[in-house]
Design brief:
By secondary structure, this protein is α+β, with helices and mostly antiparallel strands. The chain is 16% helix and 45% strand. Strands 1-2-3-4 form a four-stranded antiparallel β-sheet. The protein is elongated and about 50 Å long.
Length: 76
């Protein structure tokens, strides 16, 4: 992908929370999905992230990724 005019790497990930004895029993473990975009511009690294919980990732992640790709960076 390209972010702020810079070639970048896009990572699409998914996962979930594991067993947690501190979590109340009525709360199920969360399933999540996200996008990370990372690159280097003029010697300065950046890492942009968006994530959300299932089942709303189908609509939330594309919106978040669109916002990430609007990122603008100026390095003095």
């Amino acid at each position: 992908v390209e972010a702020s005019g810079v070639p970048a790497i896009r990572v699409d990930w998914s996962g979930g929370s594991g067993p947690d004895p501190a979590r109340p029993r009525h709360l199920a473990p969360a399933k999540m999905r996200g996008i990370m975009i990372t690159g280097i511009k003029d010697g300065v690294g950046f890492s942009l992230h968006t994530q959300d919980i299932e089942p709303i990732t189908e609509t939330a992640i594309p919106l978040g990724e669109k916002a990430l790709l609007s990122f603008a960076m100026r390095v003095p």
